Structures are given as structure tokens and as C-alpha cells.
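[Help] Beginner question about ligand-bound structures

Sorry if this is basic. My supervisor gave me a protein sequence and a SMILES string for nicotinamide-adenine-dinucleotide and asked me to "get the holo structure". I don't really know what that means in practice or what format the answer should be in. Inputs are pasted below exactly as I got them.
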Amino acid sequence: MKIGVAKEIKADEYRVALTPAGARELVQLGHDVLVEAGAGEGSAFADVQYAAVGARIASVEDVWANAELLLKVKEPVPEEYPRIRADQILFTYLHLAASRELTEALVASRAACIAYETVETASGGLPLLAPMSEIAGRLAAQAGAYFLEKPLGGRGLLLGGVAGVAPGRVLVIGGGIVGYNAAVIAIGLGANVTILDRSIDRMRYLDEILSGRVSLVMSSALQIEESIRDADVVIGAVLIPGAKAPKLITRPMLSEMRPGAVLCDVAIDQGGCAETSRPTTHTDPVFVVDGVTHYCVANMPGAVPITSTKALTNATLPYVETIAKHGLMEAVALDPGLAPGVNVLDGRVTYEAVAEAHGLEYAPLYSVLA
Ligand SMILES: NC(=O)c1ccc[n+]([C@@H]2O[C@H](COP(=O)([O-])OP(=O)(O)OC[C@H]3O[C@@H](n4cnc5c(N)ncnc54)[C@H](O)[C@@H]3O)[C@@H](O)[C@H]2O)c1
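Answer (accepted):
No worries, everyone starts somewhere. Holo just means with the ligand present. The predicted complex, written as C-alpha cells, is below.
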């Protein structure tokens, strides 16, 4: 198969969808790998490293025009929409529930669009979201600690405290992968950490692995309202797979928070879990509403591309190999977890939560494949 790797052109995105090590695996399997010139630069991979393992360095036009399977990291941006071809498989993060414009562009393209974030494991886990969630969670705790500093507009509090001075309070809403990793780093910094979740099974698991080091509390509107009043850092880490994030923090709740507190809304890539959140970039990561610093960077792992690129491609490569070897239909049959990854196929929305988010017609994947 002709596999293309496009250079990311979204602001502040330095990751790339394939490492030279991954390119070598694909070349060894007999595939033709085209890497856009400069695609790996941001992750410290030079064109010569890809060329050395047998990939071809190509222009942006060549990559998009020739790739049967196009690999990216972030969703296509408007200038990329016209490049997507009907006979192409696009494999990347899409987060379609958060963008009707992109959903419509992909429907119009008639391409097969597989979203990393909705591919599942046999047990219902999200294997291609997980590595980025680990990184985003760890970064969220770091960002929270950083923006608490007074010169940056924060409360002026050292998250870990010191001997004789109480540490800061971190409230993590959603104890999934982001939430767990945020909690681990916050605990490591010495903070007092509370995790709210709605899944009792997940809380049992967190209780087992974090026993005694965090408070675990059932999430509800009332609990959130009460807990955010004395939090120094709130980390929004909820997810309802494929759907828009629920707005758990309302504007009136925000005004109850401490001035200079930090809200890291990691769920911003699904629309954010606070009413006041809007996406920001690494160049301009924060804004203030009602005295609360909002950190809402939609592509947090992009800040640490060397780590993120390796973590992402470790997870995506086996899927790329399966799709490249068998084609989409057979790959879906071989690995049923790939089926929920297919969000748009042949001009139809094949992921129910995306169709629902935009009031579009939902076509079950197997009806479209048939
Ligand atoms: N901004 C970024 O750069 C970035 C990077 C990675 C992930 N994310 C986003 O972070 C979010 C979390 O991802 P994840 O991988 O941790 O998901 P996950 O599925 O592992 O965890 C989500 C958790 O939220 C819980 N939850 C659902 N509704 C809740 C509620 N009302 N109250 C409390 N908990 C609730 C679930 O029970 C689950 O434990 C997602 O929106 C994901 O897209 C953002």
C-alpha cells in the first residue's frame, strides 16, 4: 500500500504520525512510504533518517495525491480539506463531535476517515487515545502548578507546600487515564488530591492502585460545586466517548472559585467541561474569566513532541500495519475494535455520537460496508 505521512500544519503542532523506526517496519513489509519533506523536524527526526530506512521524501501535493492510507496526528485543517480524496483512508485524531465544519468536510470528501480516539480494544479501552491522555494528564498537573505562580496571574501558592505550610488542593474531575496521570504527578509534587468520577468500578480500581494517597468521591453537580470552592487547581478530565464533553462547571460555579485558581480543561478537545472554556494554543495558553486562569490547550502533547510522537506511533503502528496489509474492510473484520474507529465512510457518518452531536443521519458501519 502507498502510505503517506503529512506534515502537521496546525498551530504549535510538532508531532508526526510515523517515526523512522515505524517507517522501516512498513518498508520491510513491502509498503511504499511517502513522508512529506520536513514532517519529522518538530520531533527531531530529519528527512535523511526516513530516507535511510527506505521511505521516499515527497512534497505535500505528492503525499496527499498518492497516499492510499494517509497518516496524520491532528484533524485536517480547512486548507487540507480539498486534498482529501474519496479513495483515501485517513487515519488520524478527528474529534468530530467538536466540529460540524470538519464533519461536513469529511462527509463531502467520501473518504474513509478513521479516528484514533474512537478505536477500541476488546475490553472497550481506547488504545490510541491512551498514550496522549497519559501525557496530557501529566502535563496538566505541571501546568496547574506553574500557572499558580503569582507573576503568571496565579494565587501565588506552591502546590506542594513546604514543611509547616499546607500544600495546595488539586481537584481532578474524571478519573480515567488523564485524571489518573494528573493525580500521580500532583501527588508527586506533594499536593492534596481529590478525584471525582461517576464510575464506581473505576473508583475501586483507583482505590486499589492509589490507596490512601487521594480522596475518591462520586461525581455529581452538587459535589463539583462544593469541591471547586476550595481547589487551587481543577483538572477537567471527563470523557463520554465520541460525544461532546458535558458542561460540568457552570459560570455561577466558577465565580465561587478562589481568585487566581487554575482550571486546566484537558477535555477541551471534546468541547471542554466548563461553560467558560474555549480552546487555546501553546503560544497563548491561558485566559482569565472571573479571576480563574483557564488553561485550555487543545493539543497538549504537542508541547513535548519527542515523547508524544514515540508514544503515539508505538500505539498506532500495529493498526497501520493491519490496515495496510488487509485493506479497511478486512482489517475491520479481523479486529472489530477498529470498527468504532471509522467515523465517516463513503459520505456517511458511521459513529453514532458524532451524528447525534450535529443532528446528522447515522449510518451503522456495517450497513455502509455492505
Ligand atoms: N487537551 C489535550 O491535549 C488532550 C489530550 C488527551 C486527551 N484529552 C481529553 O481528555 C479527556 C479525558 O480523556 P481520558 O483518556 O482520560 O478518558 P477516559 O475515558 O480514560 O476517562 C474519562 C473518565 O471520565 C469519567 N466521567 C464521565 N463522566 C463524568 C462525570 N460527569 N463526572 C466525573 N467523571 C466522569 C469516566 O467515568 C472516566 O473514568 C477526553 O476528552 C480526551 O479527549 C485531551
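A couple of things worth pointing out: Residues 129, 132-133, 136, 173-179, 196-199, 202, 219, 237-240, 245-246, 248, 266-270, 298-301 surround nicotinamide-adenine-dinucleotide (CB under 6 Å). The CA atoms of residues 225 and 252 lie 9 Å apart. Feel free to follow up in the thread.
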